[in-house]
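Notes, Module 5: Reading structure tokens.

Key idea: the token line is not a picture. It is a compressed description, and you learn to read it the same way you learned to read a sequence, by spotting repeated patterns. We will look at two proteins. The first is printed below with its tokens.
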Amino acid sequence: MFYKDLEKKILALIANNEIEEASKLIEEELKMPYIPQEFETFLLKMQKDIFFKTRGENTSLEETSLTIEALLNKLESAKLTDQTWAVINLENYNLRPHLKELETFLLRKNIPDDLKTMLLMTLHQQQIPNLLQLWKNNQVLKVVPSELKVTELMDFFHETKLTIMNHNWLKNTTWEALSIKLALIFLLNYFPKTLDFSVTDLAAATDYKALNLLGESGNWEILHSQFQFNESKAKKILIELDKFLVHSEITE
């Protein structure tokens, strides 16, 4: 009964668009020394849904009659919107019998890296123990989805988001929202490489880039006055981010 009540509370927070409160509650529960497996599965799904919601995607099935075969066919579409919609909704199906088709999708060079990360997160959620190959970060990688550090990735994003929100000295919600989205785009593309930079390094880089995209000049001195970060690492992030944005709707 206790866990059912928590589920209802989390769902109510999300329904009321109280995303920060829902995220905090989910993270608190995931850190508990013991939680039932069914409740943990629920928490991880809600955490991923919030993650995608921030990305601006609709994670609900529009056609509940669609079969897994129909979704796999959508992966073959030339339209990125069809591919994205299919990847998001694959979480509603058992993917173990379809790993060969999914690996083929992951190896395609014309699929954006962030979309591949979304699929990897779903495979992780289903605790797939198989070794899979994929083309990502301009190289062939081998991963075991069940071993991927997805929770750490989402925690890192949440901390970066809070840093950006807590240091919005311009009081500009458009700049803040753009910086948060840039941070998410970067992490989705960078994963599963080791995060060899800090939360503030990423926040500084995306704040700087967001200002540029809005027609303003970035200023490292002002950013240094807001929080501590490694400017060299932030500049390296900017170089990578520019590469990732080539495939992003932000630059279209």
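Here is the second protein, with the sequence above and the tokens below, as before.
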Amino acid sequence: MSYVIFDCTQLITINTRTEINLQYLLEPLGELNLKLVTSESIPNKKKVYLEEYLLNHLFELLNDEFLGYFEDWKNYDDAPEAITKFALIIKNIALQNNIDTLRLFLINHASENKQEDTITQVDVSPDSIMKGLFHFSCFGDGGSMLVLTVRNN
């Protein structure tokens, strides 16, 4: 059994069709006390762990308590307000004309030996983000990490 290299982490990676001010676009996430950390300031161990999933732009959404809302989400139709708001903000970002693909990482823990981790990958449309997020709830199958890909086609 290997050591946990990081835990309780949310990140977002995005492919854009053209240049766009992503920090401005991601600003509404601050309403949920998610502090935006640019790629340059994200520890390298996180980038290496996620490298096969990364798109052109990467941000960490820093808040050590945020994943706790998923532990409280027992019934799909009764999501905590913070998750409902999070899903709506992500949907609004994904629907922007310049956004091609958006990928969220919700990580309970990441091990040195990645093969020990249960990684759930889900692809959804912008209208199905809540269904994708429910995989990470205590009654879902999100495991160690949920990789939620939202495509704006």
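Summary for the second protein:
- The chain has a mean pLDDT of 93.
- Residues 5 and 36 are 21 Å apart (CA to CA).
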